[in-house]
Design brief:
alpha/beta, 13% strand, 344 residues, eight-stranded parallel barrel, globular, single chain, 10 strands
Length: 344
């Protein structure tokens, strides 16, 4: 089953940065809908790809939140659009079973025609090896230069530069500072964090980024299946309403400071911090956090009452003032950057 109706051109070092992501992903607009647990439902992924950007499948969201078998979920997205979609591969193995499941999902994605992968949390070499054998491309999430160098040693083709304004597990550096660290490494660098408006999108490309990965902006869309309360919270929140909490996953997570989050607090307890520092206890603690956070974030995203109120978002909420169709977001960004949209 083909993944894209376009022929991706051969590599050319003279390409402008934005052309590099479009070339690697086979898309018209250098805009990725970032993989979001729990918000990456098939309709949202498909809508961004259909509009000329690329939706990235988050496997745990597809299967554990939205109830699809992995291969069946990919085919459901393909039924909505023939245009390219990508896949997020979490490469850090909290357990052997989890790793084996991710390997199986990657192989199924390749069989279903996916050729663009975003990796995170660990050494992506095994993903690169499998993807490259099928003609695929791998971009890796990084927050600083040392992780970028390790990813390049593993053979990745590009970098997703996660800055301090990102939602979820954000970085510690600003977008310009991070680009300065990474721009000499000879691969495309995508901006992740702090971009929600067309003007911010165009500005990121003007800085020299090869493209933008947006997450929070696509939560406040008609196609996203997050609860209406979650979407409205994103629309109403300001930059100062975003806080970092360790109480959900064990490492700082950017969320909206709801009453629920304020009651829970933002600092991990002393036992958790001690276990996360130990070489033998770290994996156990991360597994416990993963089980709890998967359930908590899933329930919160779908709960129309808003009672759980644990909603991930980045500081780009400052630029989000309405719920829009995903295609309109892609179109406005393309217009701001003076980029042509693909034919319908």
């Amino acid at each position: 089953m083909p993944n894209a109706p376009y022929i991706v051109p051969s590599r050319a070092s003279a390409d402008p940065p934005a052309h590099a992501l479009c070339r690697d992903a086979g898309i018209a607009v250098p805009l990725l809908c970032g993989p979001m647990f729990p918000c990456s439902n098939p309709e949202l992924v498909a809508a961004v790809s259909a509009a000329g950007g690329m939706g990235i499948v988050q496997p745990m969201a597809l299967t554990h939140v939205h109830g699809h078998g992995f291969r069946e979920g990919l085919r459901a997205i393909r039924a909505l659009t023939p245009r390219p979609i990508g896949m997020n591969v979490l490469v850090e193995a909290s357990s052997r079973i989890y790793h084996e499941r991710m390997v199986r999902w990657l192989d199924e994605a390749l069989e279903e025609g996916i050729r663009f992968f975003v990796t995170s949390l660990g050494k992506p070499g095994w993903v690169v090896e499998r993807a490259r054998a099928a003609g695929g491309v791998v971009y890796h999430d990084v927050t600083e230069r040392k992780w970028a160098l390790k990813a390049l040693d593993a053979g990745v083709h590009g970098l997703i530069a996660v800055n301090r304004r990102a939602g979820g597990h954000s970085g510690a550096k600003g977008a310009e500072e991070l680009l300065d660290e990474l721009s000499d490494l000879g691969v495309p660098v995508v901006c992740a964090g702090g971009v929600a408006t067309p003007e911010e999108f165009a500005r990121a490309l003007a800085l020299g980024y090869a493209g933008v990965q947006m997450g929070t902006r696509f939560i406040a869309t008609h196609e996203c299946r997050a609860s209406a309360r979650y979407k409205q919270a994103v629309v109403e929140a300001g930059e100062d309403d975003i806080v970092l909490t360790e109480r959900i996953t064990g490492v700082p997570l950017a969320v909206i400071a709801t009453p629920w989050v304020q009651r829970l607090g933002t600092q991990a307890g002393p036992l958790a911090r001690w276990m996360l520092r130990g070489r033998r206890t770290k994996r156990l603690m991360r597994t416990l956090y993963a089980v709890r956070s998967t359930r908590q974030l899933r329930l919160a995203s779908l709960d129309e009452s808003g009672g759980t109120g644990c909603w991930q978002a980045g500081r780009s909420v400052a630029g989000i003032h309405e719920i829009l169709p995903a295609a309109e977001i892609v179109g406005r960004c393309a217009a701001a950057a003076r980029l042509p949209l693909p034919p319908p």
